[in-house]
Amino acid sequence: MSFPTLTQYSDYREFLRDYYETRKASDADFSYRFLALRAGINSSAFYKYVIEGKRNLTKASILKTCLALKLKDRDAEYFENLVFFNQSKTVREKNVYFERLTKLRGQYETRRIGREQSELFAAWHHAAVRETLACMDFRGEYEALAKRLTPPITVKQARDSVALLAELGLVKKDAQGRWTPTDPVLVMGAAVATEVVEAHQQRMLALASEAFRRFPKDERFMSSTTFSVSRATYELFERRIRELKAELLEAARLDALCDHVYQLNLNLFPLSKPPAR
After folding, report:
1. Cα separation, 162 vs 170, whole angstroms
2. What's the CA angle centered on 35, arms 10 and 58, to 5 degrees?
3. Which residues does 273 contact at the CB level (< 8 Å), separation at least 6?
4. 13-71: per-residue pLDDT in tens?
5. Is residue 105 predicted with pLDDT exceeding 70?
6. Exposed end of the chain (fewer CB within 10 Å): N or C?
7. 3-state secondary structure string, 89-153?
8. Against a cut of 0.90, is the pTM above it?
9. What stretch of H or E contains 86?
């Protein structure tokens, strides 16, 4: 029996739900009452209410839950911080627990796009459709999906895009008929041809330029800076940008309340020639 991998979850209630369903599928006698008894909690429906969002976990019940689920060391620490992250009331609190979760997980789990999935980058809207499916309860309402994107696409494009994403294994339909991404984070694999990557990036830069007239200032963030630095500092900038991108990807993965899809373009390029040697 294979239990859910805790560090793949951004919501502890979903982890508890999947853990419970996995145990129940292999042992018909397993129940919320049994789990509560193993945790030393008197209420037989305690975990049912927690999973449904009707109850929260406290410091004491987190410890009892870790013992009941046999979570030890780093897994127990990750679970505790995930609970506090999900239950935080302020942005400051969320930031504190987010940083702890990031350190505990190390490198975020990703799906690397290979050569066989290069068609994802054939049009700008394929990636946007995939991310939009994570933000809406989509069960085949292609007109609503098409209108959700900015700029909007046609119904046919929306239908073809979902079909392509399914064919590439990047989205799936669950038992309730809802379409969702198969992986929380996608990154460009080294096998994708350079010309494919650059063509995609140029299309996204064109959308960034259009965003100046498409969105009011408070709905977009645009910034540019000119530096005079050495090659060594340029390489430092590049490394720090990659680290920032990784951190933002992790923040996106942990965001269980997404309602928008955003595009981030980071560009660092020369405006002068190096001195003659």
Report:
1. 9
2. 55
3. none
4. 999 999 999 999 989 999 999 999 999 999 999 999 999 999 999 999 999 999 999 99
5. yes
6. C
7. CCHHHHHHHHHHHHHHHCCCCCEEECHHHHHHHCCHHHHHHHHHHCCCCCCCCHHHHHHHCCCCC
8. no
9. helix 73-87
Paired residues of 171 in beta bridges: 181
For residues 220 and 211, is the Cβ–Cβ distance under 8 A? Answer: yes
Task: Report d(CA 174, CA 179) in Å as an integer.
Answer: 7
Contacts of 171 (CB under 8 A, 6+ apart): 130, 133, 162, 165, 179, 180, 181, 182
Q: Taking a C-beta distance cutoff of 8 angstroms, is the pair 165, 126 a contact?
A: yes
Reading the block at residue 109, the tokens are: 């789990």
Tell me the three state secondary structure of residue 25. Answer: helix
**Amino acid, res. 141:** E
Angle between helices 59-69 and 32-39 (to 10 degrees): 110
Query: Of 262, 268, 191, which is closest to residue 229 (Cα–Cα)?
Result: 268
Identity at 231, one-letter amino acid code: R
The whole-angstrom separation of Cα 132 and Cα 153 is 13
Question: Quick one: tokens of 2?
Answer: 């294979």
Q: Which two tokens stand for residue 202?
A: 């140029």
Non-local CB neighbours of 226 within 8 Å, separated by 6+ positions: 271
User: What residue spans of 168-255 are helical by DSSP H?
Assistant: 194-214, 231-254
Q: How far apart are CA 172 and CA 180, in angstroms?
A: 6
Greatest pairwise CA separation for the chain in angstroms = 78
Beta carbons of 251 and 98 less than 8 angstroms apart: yes
DSSP 275: P
Quickly count: other Cβ atoms within 10 Å of residue 143's Cβ.
11
